[in-house]
Amino acid sequence: MSTRRTRLRPLGVALAALAACVALPLTQGPAAAAETPLSQGKTVTASSTENAGTPAAAAVDGNTGTRWSSAATDDQWLQVDLGATADVKQVVLTWEAAYGKDYKVQISKDTTSWTDLKSVTGSDGGTDTLDVSGQGRYVRLQGVHRATQYGYSLWEFQVFGSTSATQPTCGTADAARGKPASASSTENAGTPASAAFDGDTGTRWSSQAGDPQWVRVDLGSTQDICEVDLTWEAAYGKDFQIQVSGDGQSWNTLKSVTGATGGTASYDVSGSGRYLRVYGTARGTGYGYSLWEVAVHTGGTGIPPVQGGGDLGPNVIVVDPSTPNLQQKFDQVFAQQESNQFGTGRYQFLLKPGTYNGVNAQIGFYTSISGLGLNPDDTQINGDVTVDAGWFNGNATQNFWRSAENLAITPSNGDDRWAVAQAAPFRRIHVKGGLNLAPNGYGWASGGYIADSRIDGTVGPYSQQQWYTRDSSVGGWTNGVWNMTFSGVQGAPATNFDTGPYTTLDNTPVSREKPFLYLDGSTYKVFVPAKRTNAQGVSWPANAGASLPLDQFYVVKPGATAATINAALAQGLNLLFTPGVYHLDQTIDVNRADTVVLGLGLATLIPDNGIDALHVADVDGVKLAGFLIDAGPVNSDTLLRIGTPGSTADHSANPTSMQDVFVRVGGAGPGLATNSVVVNSNNVIIDHTWLWRADHGSGVGWDTNRADYGLRVNGDDVLATGLFVEHYNKYDVYWNGERGRTIFFQNEKAYDVPNAAAVTHDGIVGYAAYKVADTVTSHEAWGLGSYCNFTADPSIVQTHGFQVPTTPGIKMHDLQVISLGGKGQYAHVVNNTGAPTSGTSTVPSKVTSFP
Which stretches does UniProt call biased (Polar residues) (predicted)? Predict the structure, then answer.
């Protein structure tokens, strides 16, 4: 397994560099250069940091003995929020020995669009003093080329200029007074919703005694809201949210309050909307919620309306058959990304319709390739789209985080090679030949996923341990190691799990293909496929569904703030995340039905300071697709939550779906999250996910990247197709909803369990990989495997891989457990049924039907 090493420079080099930087005086410039920089001590973010000792904040702390340094790639940035709009006159960069040779200094009012203040080429390090002229709130260094093999490293990043003496302030008038009001309930006729907005502290709104409850006001027009004052009666809200909406249907949370104690309180907020509500989730007393007054103040800085559409950003590479040096473009990105397992580079290749001859697109980490036609055959590659494992000595078990989509491939030698492990979907591809899923030399491989694809020839898994294929067509399937599962696949082999690896379902009960970007003439649109029932074979060229123009999407680019993202959602925009790494200082709240959140190039969300990354309300038809959530170093409760706790609505006609949404805890650095994904809504479709508590990389240890649960399902009628969940400290999957179904499950238990005592509970050694709660009466699953590799204590014998209630409504088909080389064992397969594993032979123990 690969391990990231922190770079240590020789002490002499570091001291010499420090001495050089201290000795170099600042170039004489305008008088502002002698003043305290506008940037000093302000909020700062970066695309990456080398380690915990070189944070972004060190570049603006006024201390020339501390520094920020980035990961060792060219595309890195540092961004400072000046706190207010400023006239920027000068920027001073004091470089450490690892300096930027070519870079840009840019300015923005909103982090959405950036203007170049200065482009620098051929810098020689030391101190760069740049006279500039521009107006904005945010200033960033955008690296283009490094001068050394290391990252970018700055002792100080100083921005000089002046802020306006007339910064907008929050108004004192109450914009809500006397406006139309409504509520979830009222205690009686004497406590109406309107009483909370009448300006009279002797009248009040009060609700019935239950959770949740809300009261809302219609401000009459969209307003920039900067402060909300609440005056509670004795029956106060302990936990509540202040929310805004543009239409009274989709809500954006401006402030989440927990542990309130009543009385009068004022909350500074920033957001825009026509409707405002106080949404209570926990009462402070046994009575309902009761408010004397809610006052709303407007006119602060607010967030300007977010514009939809625009360009796709610097990390989306759009090509056509006439693009010069096309092979070189593929090769350059691959050279950077081939072994860049935990780096920050993110890339998306988009191929315009046409025929591409002699191309071999090798696909490395965090790289995606997609055709821009409405159908795969609109984009023809006479060549290859290749994943191999030369970077890892022919071992493909770590070929994660990449994708191919919406292309036709005529392989140069008859078979295309796609030797991947988890989180590497192969979607909507027409292979005019065969498909080889093993690396050159047939080394270890641990994949994978195919959907909505037609392979004219034979698929050869060879060394692949497991694979799931859905709603596709194959010319043949040669073999498999342990678990080859198919649903809705024309040409799939017949079920043979007793003596072979095959589990085959004639159709997929419910499915909906992933949304994708395409060109309609010269206009970008996102196609959103329709739901299918009992599907078999590919969805194209019929293409049932709807097209959304790009101007209905906020095109999110690196550096965008969570506040802007939430403002875009509140306006009714969808989200298209361009390739990049996005640090979030507030939870992204998706509250509108049918919202599309689509990522390109494995766009990555990182929640900071222990927040949750993404919440989806209990609404119809949200589509989440194509992105990675990476846990931050402060524990988050839940990285992705779909539906609010206690959700009961029926979404069977238009379910929410998550597709190619991956979660990582550790590996790229310390990460902590109690739950990776919690599904509270009913009827959700989980179509291909890999939830991974890291077993290698940086920030890995039993408690260092602790994550108790991978997937928790509380909603009813949830379907998982292609479920990969690995290495969690407790249950990898805990299913608490009724009538749940899973088609294909792949799991490894945590490698680093220190001893049996650490995972012993209720008289059971080890937490089941897949547990159906004791209260559940109906559940069904097909093609499940759990493997153990207890490297920290090989003597551990886990009681079972699967644990389910023994009732007529529980039906489990084709289960297996495997000891990988004898590093630990299983005593049973499911509950107390199934032969134990033994020895070092890595032979499955199977149960074909339970009970």
Answer: 42-52, 182-191
